[in-house]
Write a structure and sequence with these properties.
By secondary structure, this protein is α/β, with parallel strands linked by helices. The protein folds into three domains: about 140 residues, Roll (Sulfate adenylyltransferase); about 160 residues, HUPs (Rossmann fold, 3-Layer(aba) Sandwich); about 180 residues, 3-Layer(aba) Sandwich (Rossmann fold), CATH 3.40.50.300. It is built from 20 helices and 20 strands. About 40% of the residues are buried. The structure holds 3'-phosphate-adenosine-5'-phosphate sulfate. Its EC number is 2.7.1.25.
């Protein structure tokens, strides 16, 4: 193996001096502005601080073509990932080539200016196929490319004014030059970087420690806190977990720094990209594991990339990149010896223990044991705090049915029963309460009913997010709107749809408020069930009949359902 030593000289940044920045900021206020998307802010930060060295701005068309086709900039330098400024057609048309524009963050702060030298409409299908391997929306970056990114790309050099502002974990964020200076100060001439977007468990701690020992290098835990794969554990929780694991390494040889990268989940190309970024951050070695930066399954249910494609591609380019790969040792826990060992060194008859990601989530959800051999108790503690068992999470019970079907009465009874049990706070969003407090200006057109239900859904999702119980009881006649509310709530907790299935005949016979009579006489228009539609729910979690069943029993059926779903525990 070649001995890599680190050249820790500063690398070029795109920032102007402090004084020039103050001046430029004032001048830039007169420029046409582009409001950066969250991904573009991540990209811009790494462009400006040298993390994306040798890029000097968002890619020009010639650079883009080279990167897409053969992973090289127009001047031949290796660069595997398009870093492009996507904008809308309208914005693109308003710009003249050669013009300077201001790049602003989401609060309007000017972070940089860019001289627009290039403007083109990319062939997104080609980009998807060449860069990500397939034009398949199941790939998060392809989905982003087609459904989020603007139609037109602008390219040109960037002049950096200030770093994007971060309020969280400020002390843990370092620019490439800050890390280089730190390594220089400590005399760390060999540093192996570990890229991660997941909480670290014991297996990761073992493999990173082993990798550092083998390379006789210091270790940089370098987690991504920009954008990762949708559905990942949020970075706030992860960083607290990393901080707990950091204590398990020898302090004098290991450090951690947070990287505000927007990942693309592009497997092999992404591994090379990650290597170049770590090289810029002063590292000499980089750990590449099985299925590095894997995007999951494609729409046919198959893997986008082979499990070792990333290692192969990295190996092909590592000399040119001047950073050496340490291939991931897949570590497993061997029960007989109560320790982690590389899977390929374990004899066939040994008992190997494992807990998959799915099994871990199940145990968190059900509040079951997570053994010490799998993860450090501090890490498990943080995860349990973030993902309490279902019986401690918020949820929403959403009643739907005709006017007078008994929704409010059952919802009230349910609320009282839940309050008797205690624990989570309960909020009742009854149709009448909502129409008085949130939707007093709305009528009963389809548009207004949808608005009304969306508002209820928003409030219920906030209550659910914050660990409370929301009970909603509107008519909610439209299935599509109910589905939208379900999706909003299910980001945070369970959504329990209860169809109060009282027939329209029975509701009209009861006519508790005298409204059906008025509706029949045409004095109330658009009355649900009489002169307006109601989509009967196809698959509610529960359907209750009210005609021969009393209210207490109906509410009790809901309680039993909640118990069955694990939402209330003994
Ligand atoms: S919706 O469709 O979900 O927005 O309706 P909702 O907010 O639940 O309001 C229903 C209550 O408003 C009274 N009301 C009407 N209902 C249906 N159609 C028309 N045109 C209408 N006009 C007034 C009625 O009392 C409903 O009360 P509930 O509690 O459902 O009996």
């Amino acid at each position: 193996t070649k001995i890599v030593q680190n050249n820790l000289a500063p690398i070029p940044e795109l920032y102007v001096s402090y004084d020039s920045a103050q001046k430029l900021k004032v001048e830039a206020a007169d420029l046409v502005s582009h409001d950066l998307t969250p991904r573009q802010i991540c990209d811009l930060e790494l462009l400006m601080n040298g993390g994306f060295n040798p890029l000097k701005g968002f890619l020009s068309e010639a650079d883009y073509d080279g990167v897409v086709e053969n992973m090289r900039l127009a001047n031949g330098s290796l660069w595997p990932m398009p870093v492009t400024l996507d904008v809308s057609e309208t914005f693109a048309e308003s710009i003249e080539l050669g013009q300077d524009i201001a790049l602003r963050d989401q609060e309007g702060v000017i972070l940089a200016t860019m001289t627009v030298t290039d403007r083109w409409t990319p062939d997104k299908k080609r980009e998807a196929e060449k860069v990500f391997g397939a034009d398949d929306d199941a790939h998060p970056a392809v989905n982003y490319l087609h459904n989020t990114a603007g139609k037109v790309y602008l390219g040109g050099p960037v002049t950096g004014i200030q770093q994007p502002v971060h309020y969280d974990f400020r002390g843990r964020r370092d620019t490439p030059n800050e890390l280089r200076a730190y390594f220089r100060k400590l005399g760390w001439r060999k540093v192996v970087a570990f890229q991660t977007r997941n909480p670290l468990h014991r297996a990761h701690q073992e493999l990173t420690f082993r990798a550092a020992k083998e390379a006789q290098a210091n270790l940089l835990i370098h987690p991504v806190v920009g954008l990762t794969k949708p559905g990942d554990v949020d970075h706030f929780t992860r960083v607290r977990c990393y901080e707990a694991v950091l204590d398990k390494y020898p302090g004098s040889t290991t450090t951690m720094s947070l990287l505000n990268l927007a990942m693309r989940m592009a497997g092999p190309r992404e591994a090379v990209w990650h290597g170049l970024i770590r090289k810029n951050h002063g590292c000499t070695h980089f750990i590449v594991g099985r299925d590095h930066a894997g995007p999951g399954k494609n729409s046919q249910g198959e893997d986008f990339y082979g499990p070792y494609d990333a290692q192969e591609m990295f190996r092909e380019y590592q000399d040119e990149m001047d950073i050496e790969m340490v291939d991931f040792k897949h570590m497993v826990f061997v029960q007989e010896r109560a320790q982690y060992e590389p899977a390929d060194e374990v004899e066939d008859d040994a008992t190997v223990l494992n807990i998959s990601g799915t099994e871990l989530r199940r145990r968190l959800r059900e509040g079951l044991e997570i053994p010490e051999w799998f993860s450090f108790s501090e890490v498990v503690g943080e995860l349990r705090r973030r993902y309490p068992p279902r019986s401690n999470q918020g949820f929403t019970v959403f009643f739907t049915g005709f006017s007078g079907s008994g929704k409010s009465t059952i919802a009230n009874a349910l609320m009282v029963k839940l309050m008797e049990m205690g624990g989570r706070p309960v909020t009742l969003l009854d149709g009448d309460i909502v129409r008085k407090n949130l939707s007093s200006e709305l009528g009963f057109s389809k548009e207004h009913r949808d608005l009304n239900i969306r508002r209820i859904g928003y409030v219920a999702s906030e209550i659910t997010k914050n660990g409370g119980i929301a009970i909603c009881a509107p008519i909610a006649p439209y299935a599509t709107t109910r589905r939208a509310v379900r999706e909003e709530v299910e980001q945070y907790g369970a959504f329990v749809e209860v169809h109060v299935a009282t027939s329209i005949e029975e509701c009209e016979r009861r006519d508790r408020k005298g409204l059906y009579k008025l509706a029949r006489e045409g004095k109330i228009k658009e009355f649900t069930g009489i002169s307006d539609p109601y989509d009967v729910p196809d698959h509610p979690e529960l359907r209750v009949e009210t005609e021969n069943v009393d209210v207490d029993n109906c509410a009790h059926q809901v309680i039993l359902k909640l118990e069955q779903m694990g939402l209330i525990a003994g």
